[in-house]
């Protein structure tokens, strides 16, 4: 499917039928809060630009701004792996990203290069313009951080 056809579908997408590809193609902005054991709470802002590549994968370039840390960039590539399964890569992960889409929720799992296991649930909201992102970071089986973020389409 061409990008223009995908964007056309985006304009007419029903809230319950929005896909990750439809939501993330274009610009999105996330604003949220990280809660880290021993460090407390701090703000997080993520600026993203998504596109479909020639092989049908969703490529998402991000700039992550986290209070008290230098801004960093990362790139996601997610592809459909049959049915509702997702596979992919992220530049700051060790190994693959795996996941599935169930209803309006994209559920992802991966290990960060620094060692934490991440479980991420992105819930697409009615209207197709907003999603709620909840991330849980675990080390040695213990939750060491969480992130709560609201992602909005801005273009």
Q: How are helices and strands ordered from N to C?
A: HHEEEEEEEEEE
Note the overall shape.
Answer: globular
Estimate what percentage of residues fall within beta strands.
over 45%
What structural category do the secondary elements indicate? mainly beta
What do the pLDDT scores average to?
89
As residue ranges, the low-confidence spans are 1-16
* Major β-sheet profile: 10 strands, antiparallel, barrel
Strand arrangement across the biggest beta sheet:
1-2-3-4-5-6-7-8-9-10
Strand segment tally = 10
Percent helix among the residues? under 10%
Overview features:
ten-stranded antiparallel barrel, 155 residues, 10 strands, disordered N terminus
């Amino acid at each position: 499917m061409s990008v223009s056809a995908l964007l056309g579908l985006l304009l007419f997408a029903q809230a319950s039928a929005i896909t990750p590809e439809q939501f993330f193609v274009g610009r999105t902005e996330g604003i949220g809060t990280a809660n880290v054991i021993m460090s407390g709470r701090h703000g997080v802002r993520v600026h993203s630009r998504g596109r479909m590549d020639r092989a049908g994968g969703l490529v998402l370039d991000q700039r992550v701004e986290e209070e008290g840390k230098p801004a960093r960039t990362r790139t996601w590539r997610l592809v459909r792996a049959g049915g509702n399964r997702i596979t992919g890569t992220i530049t700051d992960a060790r190994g693959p990203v795996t996941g599935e889409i169930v209803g309006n929720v994209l559920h992802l799992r991966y290990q960060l290069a620094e060692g934490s296991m991440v479980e991420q649930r992105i819930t697409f909201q009615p209207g197709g313009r907003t999603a709620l992102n909840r991330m849980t970071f675990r080390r040695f089986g213990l939750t060491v951080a969480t992130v709560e973020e609201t992602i909005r389409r801005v273009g």
